[in-house]
Here is the input.
Amino acid sequence: MSNDPRIPVLNVIETLSDQYLQGKVKAVKLAMMSLLSGGHLLLEDIPGLGKTTLALALAHALGLSFGRIQCTSDLLPSDITGLSIYDREQSQFSFIEGPVFNNLLLADEINRAMPKTQSALLEAMEEHRVTIEGKTYRLPDPFMVIATQNPVEQVGTYPLPESQLDRFLITTGIGYPPESMEKKIIQRGSIREEIREIKPLISREELLRARQAIREEVQLSDKITTYIYRLVAATREHPMLLAGISTRGAISLAETARTHAFLDGRDHVIPEDVKDLYLPVCAHRLILRPENETLDRKELLLSLLEENPVPLV
Amino acid sequence: MVRIKRLLDILSSLVALLCMGPILAYLDQALLPVALLAIPAGFWCDRREHYPLPTWLATLIALAGMAFYTVQITRAEVAIPVVHAMVVLMIVRLLTPKEGRDYLQIVVLALFILAGSSLIHLEIGFALYLVLLVFGVILGLVLLTVYVTDQNMTMTRPDLTKLIKIGLILPAISLLLMMIFFVVLPRTRHPLWNFLNPAAKGVVGLAETVQPGSFAQISTVKTLAFRAEGPELAPEDRYWRALVLNHPEQGRWVRKDPPQEGGGRVVGPPPVIFMIYPEPRTDRYLITLDRPTLVSGVRKEQTVDQMFVARSAIDHRFRFEVRASPGASLQVPGKVDRAFYLQPPAQISPRIRQLATDIRNQGEDVALRINALADFFRNQELSYAQDDLPSGPDAIDSFLFAKKRGYCEFFASAYITLARLSGIPARLVGGYYGGDYNPMGGYYLVSEETAHVWVEILTADNRWQRVDPSQWAINAATTLGIRDQGQLNALRQLADSLNYHWVQAIVVFDLQQQISIFREAGARLRSLRSVRAPKDWREMAGGLLVAVVLVMAVFSLRRKSKEARLLEEYRARLKKRYGYEVLLPGSGLAEIGDQLDNEECRQFAKIYYGAVFRDRTLSKTEIATLKDLLKNI
Here is the structure.
């Protein structure tokens, strides 16, 4: 039983969503998937729905080191990566690591940071290392960025360029919890204190083992590959889109589909895995034509899901 | 996913097979096995993309084959060598590398070979082959248009199905149109492309009276009088008989009801059969070949002097059959009213009267008198002409002794006058002489300008015998029965053949004939039940081979995996259970299970997906389990 690499992962999801983050199962699951697939998560929602709570809870439950950046327009790249400070006693510069040197990094309101700062972060996300003053530092493994942004705010923001959006594996909202649950939450008040009490539910080794299991044991058949290709190709030919899903997007879709299958206890990917992740993985990667700017990307993808038959035979 | 090139390869093999089917029985012993082997061999070559036959050798073989079979072409045998030559070309094409136009060549060759096979033998199976081949051609053309743009393009199965469906529409529409035309066309009397032209009017070219000396119109009208389908006739037999004039009246020859003389018997060479297609005309005379024995296929009345008159006006196109014995004479068994046929015209010049007396003085023997009359015409050196004609009441006299030129009416009137005066019963016969034979259609084209008049005389043994005094004109060989335009040129022959075939195949094809064809077809179908021994095993083998390969092709195309069959069953079950189409193309099986909250559906999805997306087929036990689950849904 303890041999199954799935158990601790499921345990994290269950505990978090049952005890601490009621009504956020989907977001918790996606965050776990993002972590297991080695990608980064972008939470897109209005403030006060528990984006930060989610990230905090996740960091505690995973027993990972946690760093946090509150992005503002005067945030500098060195505020993220760290900088060298002259040590008078030892008469030399010593490097002070920035928040990026944590397993889990919460970049709150990432769209408020300057493009220069954004790109410093995004480089770290892609390369898993930072270069400061000619010296390259490896980032810890696992490394995941949970960025949040408020889609409503426009003033004083620097929207992420599409090329950088492409680096996020999954984008998701959190949404309001159901009525009964929200009432409970209101009654209980903030749970920030409780979250600090969360004991790590999974070790780093278990996490890495789960990752390995996903890579090695989950089978992606040719039919699913074709299905993913068709879904991706459909966005490239779509008349309302300027650019469709990139090859990186397709790889991401396949990888998250594997993770989804793994969490579901299967050793093979089924079309539903792909369908479930098509929206979270792909929606933010689409570039709409200027005249169709107001279109809902998710609706567009849903229509593509309906048009492309699921491979059954 | 399948590459267009591969589809084209399969299609070209099938098309080649389709066209070989009907000609298999007629191929050379040497060519037959090569042709049969070439199709799978070509397919194999395409598959491996390896062509053992070098191009120079292929070209050489094609040229040699063409040359070998071209020299075998004779007038009598065109189709078989041509088909063989095309089969050689097809074999070479199949065995060499193929690009866009090579596929096109295969398709076109297949069409030609099939067309050629219809020249060798035509059966109902041809229609089937044709429909299949046309379908193949359409499909091939569509694929080719894609192929020339992108040679590496692939096609998914649904796309292919769609293409096949669209490809089927065209033959289906043409079949439908054929059915419609089958009803519409028999009711049209004119070629469809003629619909803008005014309806054909009857023309008078054939004079109902003969009055030499007044200008007759017969020689100037060039319109078509009729077509006669049948064998080619010797020049002296091309007399087309229409009406008989037997009575002189005020300087003209007119028709009076002839006296009864009992049914005659035609004595002469064996009869030939002609199918006559008259053009609409104002009179009702049915034109026959002299001498007719039987006219059928039309409501008509027959007179004792072998005139056939239609009961209704000839104002539309139709056809009738004439059985005639060219050059024969009519033996009259009973007594002939000689007085009726000896009555001379009222006005006769002294010179003619004198001449008749001279002839009568030759003796009692009719044959002698006839010879004397012929000698007179020959010696007189009359010439056949259509201008500068004698005129006036003494036109005949002037024709015989002064001007010595005239056309058939002069010759015939002069002869009949002399014959009657000399005591030989005679009558005038009006009709046509000559006509252009169209070897393409196998018919005579007779125009109004060849209208002609000749004479029938009663010989001593009571036979009506044809005498054409115009033949004694000194220039008869060059003028009589020959149109001044000369022979029809090839193009006009072709155009006329087309028109003729239209009339023959469509216009005169009326409801009655349709019904008779249906009856015939029904009778044939009944006789099919008693299995007819095949004339030639190869004839059967060709059809069988095509049928087997086509069935195999269709099956491999239609063959569904166990998985597909199960899914179909599943889909049907769901529809039955929930009353609407649950399993839409965009939805997966596991999804459905959750949506319906149905444990069987979930189980089904789990087992099914477990096999399919592990890239393996369902095991027997899995299928059994799935079937059990289906029963419970």
About this structure: Confidence is low (pLDDT under 50) at residues 193-204, 483-487, 529-533 of chain B.
